[in-house]
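Researcher: Good morning. I'm working through a list of sequences from a screen, and I'd like to move beyond sequence-only analysis. For each chain I'm collecting a predicted structure so we can compare shapes side by side. This is the next one on the list. No need for commentary yet; just the structure.
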Amino acid sequence: MSPEWITRFPELGKLTASEQKLIAERAQAISLPAQTTVFAPGLPAENFLLVLDGTVRVQQVSSGGREIVLYRVTGGESCIMTTACLLSQDTYNAEGITETPVQAVAVPKAAFDELMARSAEFRRFVFSDYSSRITDLLHVVEEVAFERIDKRLAQKLLDRADESGQLNATHQDLAVELGTAREVVSRHLKEFQRRGWLELTRGQIALAERAALERLAGGT
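Model: Good morning. Structure tokens for this chain:
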């Protein structure tokens, strides 16, 4: 495929001409509609995924059916779950689902292995992104383990609301984001509504008192 996409990843621009040619010749452009499963538990990683546009949500499902969002991959980013599987030659233990239409580049495993072996710049690109994402994952673990659910819910509402204070989200959507049960989210949302901080309608939430939610999210 044409090598212009490499400019979306500045670190790849540091590869030698021959290395850029290799990755450009081997890579394949892929286009996926929203709500497409990109990978799932038990499947092997066959390509190194680089997202150009759109968003892929990576989540894990417990044996009891509870879901938690681990992170999202957006334009100009790679998926560390895929990277980990390629490096360990193991299968996925999470699933990736497109939240929006996605344009991406898939670098076959053989080309990925070759570049990892011969290019210090490519290794630096892979491990730099990997390190950054691991930090994000540790933050998710810390929040789930130690932060009060009402504080996390307040912050999530603030993060997802648009400028007018509106967000389209079901109670189940928010439960998945926070790694908790839908009933827990519903209970706290109803309490927030009782306090006059927001209004609940089917599939939509309107923030009425941002300042109060900000104080709760900040722990004050």
